[in-house]
UniProtKB/TrEMBL annotation:
Highest taxon listed in the record's lineage: Bacteria
Gene that encodes the chain: nuoA
InterPro entries referenced in this protein's UniProt entry, alphabetically: NAD(P)H_OxRDtase_bac/plastid, NADH_UbQ/plastoQ_OxRdtase_su3, NDAH_ubi_oxred_su3_sf
Annotated Pfam families: Oxidored_q4
Protein name, per record: NADH-quinone oxidoreductase subunit A
Amino acid sequence: MNLEYLPVLMQLAIAVVVAVSMLGGAILIGQRGRRTPAKDIPYECGKDPIGPANPRFSVKFYMVAMLFILFDIETVFFFAWAVVYRHELANGPQILFAMLFFLAVLGVGLVYELRKKALDWTRHG
């Protein structure tokens, strides 16, 4: 066996021993108390909870979050394009037209979202 792998194997062995000993210690020393109704209530500054601990969210929140992530990623593409465009001025018009096409596709997507009322908060349902 190569001796150059010995430190890696030692570190792996130490990590496994530490992990197993911590889990074993928690199992041996840990308290196993009875479940009471007070332990099942979520903590809210010492006051009785007003509603359920995990309320349902409207799908609108998820839709807006997905649209935000989508446009945020597209903004990253714009930044990368700007960096490349600065260094590739010889192919400037070709790169510029490609990004204008990408921007047009984004615009069409935004118009589609607005027509489908994906960003309309006053609509119920």
